[in-house]
Specification:
- The chain is mainly alpha-helical.
- The chain contains eleven helices and seven strands.
- The strands form three sheets. It has a three-stranded antiparallel beta sheet.
- β3 and β4 form a beta hairpin.
- α5 packs antiparallel against α6.
- The chain binds fe (ii) ion (FE2) (2 copies).
- The site of one fe (ii) ion has 5 residues, from α3.
Amino acid sequence: MPIDYSEAIPNNVNLAGDRRLQRALEQWRPGFLEWWREMGPMNSQHREVYLRTATSVDAQGWATFGYVKMPEYRWGIFLAEPEADRKIAFGAHRGDLAWNEVPGEYRGALRRLVVTQGDTEPASVEQQRHLGATCPSLYDLRNLFQVNVEEARHLWAMVYLLHAHFGRDGREEAEALLRRRSGNSDNPRILGAFNERTPDWLSYLMFTYFTDRDGKYQLASLAESGFDPLARTCRFMLTEEAHHMFVGETGVGRVVRRTCELMREHDTDAVGQYGGIDLKLLQKYLNFHYSVSLDLFGSELSTNAANYFTMGLKGRFNEESRDDDHRLNEARYAVERPIDGKIERREESALLALNENLRDSYAADCARGVARWNKIIQAAGIDFELVLPHRGFNRKIGDWSAIKVGPAGEIISEADWTARAGEWLPTTAEREFVGSLMRSVVAPGKFAGWIAPPARGINHQPLDFEYVRP
Ligand SMILES: [Fe+2]
Ligand SMILES: [Fe+2]
C-alpha cells in the first residue's frame, strides 16, 4: 500500500478508515509538535535539510530525498507489509497464528514492552539536541537531523500501537512519553543510558554505534513478536535504524582515520596538540559507551525475559534461524557472571538467560565494527588495537554491578577502581578537551580537523553539497 502524503498523518494503516483512532492521534499531534519545538534539535526550525522521507515500505526504493524544513517533516505511521498466515515462531504459542489484537492476559506485559521501547526514541533526540551548534560539517549535521527526525518517527510508531491497541491506558502512556525528559531528576527517561548526556560529537558517534545498536537488537527481537502489529512496526523501524548505525560506524572510523593521519604527519601518538583525538582516548570513549549500552539488555538471569518469550511477545535475535525447539523449557545456556567473588561460566536455564543471549549477539556484532576500525589503524602502519572491554567492566545493572572489573576482565577492589578508573574512562579534563575541539564547520565540503571526510556523500550527492541550508 503506497503512503498517501495528502493526509495529515501519512500512514499505510488505513487511518482514514478508523475515525476514532485518527482523531485520537490528531489530538496527540500538537503535543508532539510542542515537544519537538521544545526538545528537538536547537536552532533547526527554519533551516532546510536534505532529508529522506519514507514513501513506501518496499525494501526497494522506500524513501525519497529532498529539502525539508524540519518542523514540516511528515512524521507518519508505517508498518511493514503483513505476511499472510504468519505463525508465532517461539514460546508456548509456537505454531499458532500471530495475533492482530492484544491477547487480554498479556496486555500489561505488552504495554510495558511498547512503552519502554517508545521511551528511548524521544530520549535520544533530547540527548542530542544541542549538537547542531558544534557540527564538524554540513554532511554530519544533515545526518544528525536525519537520525533525529527518524527517532521522532519511531516515537510515532510506538504511540500508534498504544492508541490503536491499548485503549485509555495507551493514550495515557502516549502522553507520558511526551512528558518524561532525558536526565531530568523528577521525571527521567526509563532506561539509564538514555539519561546520560551526549555532550559532544565523539560521544554522539559512539552512541549511534553502540547504543543505536542496542536498539537494533531490541527491535529485532520485538520484530519476532506474536503480536503482529508490533512485529510489523519494528520490522520497518529496523530499515531506518540501519542508517543510524552507519553514522556511528563510519563516524568513529573517520575519527580513527584522522587520528592516524595526524600520527603519521607529526610522528607522535599525542595528536591532541594538533587538534586530534588520540587512540587511547578513543579507547576510553569506546569503553564508556559499550559498557553503558550492555546495561540496556538487563540482568543476566531474568524471569521477565523468560515470561516475554514464553508468552510469545519478544523472541530472540534471528529466532527462526535457530536450530532448537524455540520453547526452551529444558534448554541450557552458558552465562559468564560473578559468583561469590569469582568469575564463572555456568550453564543456566536458557529461558532465564535470554537477556544474556541477546547481549551475546550484540557483543559479537559490536566486535565486527571494532575490527573494521582496527583495519584502518593497521593500514596506516600503526601498532595499536582498539578492543571491547570485558562485559563486566563498568556495569551498573545485573550481577556485575555488585563488583568492580577492569577492562581485561580482572576483578579489582573498590579502592583500585577509584584509583584507576581514569585510565579506562574519559576523565573530566579529557572530556573538556574533546569539548574544546567541537567547533562548528558549516562551509560546504569542509570538515573539522578531528574527523576525516566520509568516503562519499548522501544519496550520490558530492561531499560539498549543501546538505543543510542556513
Ligand atoms: Fe529508534
Ligand atoms: Fe536509532
